[in-house]
Amino acid sequence: MMLPSMLSQRPLRLVLRYGAAVLAVACSMLLHAIMTSWVGPGLPTFIMFYPGVMVVALLAGFGPGVLATALAGIVVGYWIMPPSWQFSIALPVDRLAMVLFSAMGLFMSSVAEIYRRSRRKAAAYDQEQALRETRMENEFLANLLEHASQPFAVGYPDGRLGRFNRAFEQLTGYTAAELRIFDWSSTLTPPEWRDPEKRELDVLIRTGLPVRYEKEYIRKDGARVPIELLVHLVRDAKGEPEYYYSFIADITERKRSEETLREARAELEIRVEERTEDLKVANETAGAERRRLYDVLETLPVYVVLLSADYHVPFANRFFRERFGESDGRRCYEYLFDRTEPCETCETYTVLKTKGAHHWQWTGPDGRDYDVHDFPFVDSDGTALILEMGVDVTDRKRAEAALKESNETLERRVAERTAELKTMNEAMRSSRAAALNLMDDAISARKKAEETSEELRREIAERKQAEEALRRSERRYRSFVEVTSQFAWVTDADGRVVEDVPALRSFTGQSYEQAKGPGWAAALHPEDLQRALEVWNRAVSERTLYETEYRMKRHDGVYRLLLARGVPILDDEGSVVEWVGTCIDITEEKLAQEALQKAHAQLQDHARELQETNRELEGFAYTISHDLRAPLRAINGFARMLVDDYGPSLEEEAKRRLGVIEKNAIKMGLLIDDLLAFSRAGRTAMNISRIDMNSLVTEVVETLKPSDGPRAGINVAALPAALGDPALIRLVLANLLGNAMKFSGNSPEPRIEVGSFERDGEQGYFVRDNGVGFDMKYHDKLFGVFQRLVTDREFEGTGVGLAIVHRLVTRHGGRVWAESRPGEGATFFFTLNR
User: Fold this and answer.
1) Please, which residues bridge with residue 829 across strands?
2) How far is residue 739's CA from residue 745's CA, in Å, rounded to a whole number?
3) What is the three-state SS of 363-418?
4) Which of 145, 447, 707, 709 is most buried, by the most CB atoms less than 10 A from its CB?
């Protein structure tokens, strides 16, 4: 039974198998000789031949094993067993060994053959099982492809279609029989797509890497359907292209979505351009008004300055800069008074508490006196500022002081003159009585004539001395009137000019004849004449201080505004003897006040325009934010659909890009949410009530604590209550505490402290952390929208949170600021009403 099997094998295989038997015996003989020479003649006879027979039987089978056994017996019997070189065995032991070796060789060959046949049967069974499983798998894959919802097709380079599934038939509208006779490259593909497809297939043939491209199919009904193909290449044994197999996706809905998205984007761009143009026009108009207002403010002979709640100077006009220098980002108390802390009592910041105008006087660092007017002012971003205007009244005060001194001197001299006149009159009356007595004495007693004449001469001499003293007093008074620069005047009790006033005549250009009596009133403006006379008559009748303003024509024909003041001079009986007074030219001061009032009105108009523009911008941001949500949802939804539907067939780069799209769409959504929150922060109605700040901070901290990961140590001190809207203040605390947790998260031991303070009658609170901190030179950018001092790679965020905080605190009438150093954490302060 074994022989026919052996004879049926191919000759080369037989030669190799039986040659292995000969080679194994030869190797065993060689090993026997080597071992004998090494250990001596006592080596067992067949010890080296058993392994050879066993190896040949296992590897080559029964026949080669029997041959190896026979050859080993011949070799041992002829060369090894005595007598050597003969085919005879002398010793019975050797004969027994020969028989045992032969039997063992046959036994090992039989066992090895049985083992080999079992292995062949098992291999055949395994091969059949593998073929059966392969068939089942192929049938499963064929059924899977046949019933798959995604079209699949195999195409040959000559244009024939091989295998395709039902989805492909449904996609093209053709039956299987029709598709098998078509040329896919010409019948299904439109002419304009053939060259682009050929270029893609050339790349596939050249590189061997799958290619993905888009094209269109012409359906049986003539309609075109956009598709996306993922094409693979299979080569034959020679390396030539054998066929292509393609996974095809109907991208009609995607194209519609892309078209919808393009239309939405185009519409959005048009709307943005329209709004941008409107905003540009508004900005240009506001800019022109701002420049016009700036020019007015720059030319005013008064200082105009804006002060923020944190003592910075956002604006100062030229007058202020020339007097006090540039601020260069410093606080007002730093560069005006060289202080490190705010002034203990600052009149300016009274406005923030009273919310009303405030008037006070101030002596500046330059030593000059200023009449200061402070007004509450709201910036375009809602920030509460202080508008301060100061008029230099140093010259006016000096003039008033000089006038006061002049009036006092004049009154003193008038009093002296009056006393001298009284003395003179008494002397005259005494001398007249003495003269009469002398005459009576002369008539009655001539003998006393000489004595009486001597006394009369003495009295006459005294009267002459009194008259001379009176003339000197009048000359001194006239000299004072002529040299004074304040238009001093003297009238009689009825208001008529009775003495020459050179300064007044020099001003009006009148002669003394024209000005005397009531003539000086001819220089008054016709519109002011009646009112000036009424005030004068009332002062005369009531014998009170005369004070009024009127326009008087100067010698050059220009009317100037004068401040006239006068006082009555009374005699001992209380009757008015005369009026003395002064006139001061206040034209420049009045013009400055009018310019200041006009500037204030323009500033208020500009503030209203800015507020209106700000409201329009907020509405624009709110509308744009809502309009952006629809395309964002579409982008995010389609990206998610692509990942869900085509995830297994997508390349890693495509998956990464879709992930980037989703991530940025989500980030854009968060940015829109923050923009809406910022917009609502300026419009939401406030419900003011007393707030338990400790409870509110505890609620916010519990909300913000992470569920896993390191937690910052938060120390909340006892906080006083405040007045405000609880919901809006909760948003303020959430932003400040959220920032503190975020920016201190990388610290080895993150710590956050919440506390309170009082300063200048304000109730304040602070949030302090030991995070990364920031450079104070960027402080002015900190509370602006989209202003970030770190990158998204370091800390995520949108740059809107602190802008919301600033707006909400400002709406509550408070102020917010921050202090920090890089690497040493930051402290954010804000104030609220008690």
Assistant:
1) 766, 817
2) 10
3) ECCCCCEEEEEEEEEECCCCCEEEEEEEEECHHHHHHHHHHHHHHHHHHHHHHHHH
4) 145
The whole-model pTM stands at 0.31
370 and 318 part of one domain: yes
Instruction: Write down the pLDDT at residue 230.
Output: 92
Distance of CA 534 to the CA centre of its chain: 65
Q: Which two tokens stand for residue 740?
A: 């503190």
Going by pLDDT thresholds of 50, 70 and 90, the confidence category of residue 1 is: very low
Could you tell me how many residues make up the chain?
A: 834
Q: Does the residue 666 lie in any domain?
A: no
Q: What are phi and psi of 46, to 5 degrees?
A: -100, 10
Characterize 393-405 residue by residue with b for buried, 16 or more Cβ atoms within 10 angstroms of its Cβ, and e for exposed: beebeebeeebee
Identify the H or E element spanning 675. Answer: helix 652-681
Triad 771, 773, 776: Cα angle to 5°: 165
Q: Report the CATH number at residue 442.
A: 1.20.58
| DSSP class per residue in 21-83 | HHHHHHHHHHHHHHHHHHH-TTS-TTTTHHHHHHHHHHHH-HHHHHHHHHHHHHHIIIIISSS
Cα 598 to Cα 292: distance, rounded to the nearest angstrom = 13
- CATH assignment at residue 739: 3.30.565.10
Model confidence at 540: pLDDT above 90: no
Residue 350 falls inside a structural domain: yes
Cα torsion angle, 57, 60, 64, 68, sign: negative
| 458 and 373 in a common domain | no
- What is the C-alpha separation between 634 and 641, in angstroms, rounded? 10
Structural domains of the chain, count: 5
pLDDT at 484 > cutoff 50: no
Would you state the structure tokens that stand for residue 573, as one six-digit string?
A: 């009986």
Amino acid at 218: I
pLDDT tens digits, 78-119? 777 777 777 777 788 778 878 888 888 888 888 888 888 888
pLDDT at 279 over 70: no
Rounded to the nearest angstrom, the gap between the alpha carbon of residue 31 and the centroid of all alpha carbons in its chain is: 91
Residue 653 and residue 744: Cα distance in Å, rounded?
35
Q: What is the CATH number of the domain that holds 314?
A: 3.30.450.20
| Domain co-membership, 100 together with 192 | no
Do 440 and 358 lie in one domain? The reply is: no
Verify that 68 and 113 share a domain, yes or no.
yes
| Same domain, residue pair 127 and 211 | no
Question: Which residues on adjacent β-strands are paired with residue 233?
Answer: 244
**CA 519 → CA 503, 516, 720, 792, distances in Å?**
16, 6, 73, 84
C-beta of residue 317 within 8 angstroms of C-beta of residue 325: no
Residue 780, CA distances (Å) to 2, 331, 416, 569, 783 in order: 103, 12, 67, 64, 7
Q: Rounded CA gap, 606 and 612, in Å? A: 10
Decide which of 250, 281, 309 is a domain's last residue: 250
Instruction: Answer yes or no: do 746 and 764 share one domain.
Output: yes
Q: Which of 392, 426, 441 is at the close of a domain? A: 392
In a domain, 339, yes or no: yes
C-alpha torsion sign, points 270, 271, 272, 273: positive
Q: Can you give the residue range of the structural domain that contains 161?
A: 149-250
pLDDT of the residue at 634: 64
Same domain flag for 385 and 404? no
What is the rounded distance in angstroms from the CA atom of residue 619 to the CA atom of residue 701? Answer: 33
Gap between the Cα atoms of 614 and 380, Å rounded: 6
